[in-house]
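> example.struct
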């Protein structure tokens, strides 16, 4: 009688080196000033943290949603929107740089004011991630 063997279960483990994880935070903190960064800088930060296993896909999505593109789309779709209309809560400087810590803090506060506790929590989480990168 032939003995049947069970197929081996293959488990892929995520082996993120704790030292590399700490290093990615340090490297990004040295490379970027999150209080004076462009949206492209934030996209690079989010992608780097995600690739290092430090943040989730949801956090990447929250950090990299393009508010400027969404603002422009809304202005095109709804002709009555003021040219001053913006989905951003804070102002960028003439080079397109803004204080992203303040931006996400104010987004969180705005969502709390609307009674949107999930939006508040999500934005507060990104605020905390950016705080960790503040020099």
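> example.seq
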């Amino acid at each position: 009688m032939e003995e049947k063997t069970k197929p081996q279960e293959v488990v892929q483990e995520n082996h993120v080196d704790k030292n590399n994880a700490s290093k990615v935070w340090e490297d990004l903190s040295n490379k970027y000033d999150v209080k004076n960064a462009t949206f492209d800088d934030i996209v690079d930060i989010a992608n780097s943290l995600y690739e290092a296993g430090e943040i989730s896909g949801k956090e990447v999505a929250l950090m990299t949603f393009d508010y400027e593109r969404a603002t422009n789309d809304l202005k095109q779709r709804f002709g009555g929107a003021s040219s001053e209309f913006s989905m951003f809560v804070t102002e960028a400087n003439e080079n397109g740089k803004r204080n992203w810590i303040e931006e996400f803090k104010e987004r969180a506060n705005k969502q709390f004011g609307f009674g949107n506790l999930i939006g508040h929590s999500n934005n507060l989480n990104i605020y905390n991630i950016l705080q960790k990168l503040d020099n």
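> remarks
Residues 117-133 form the longest helix (17 residues).
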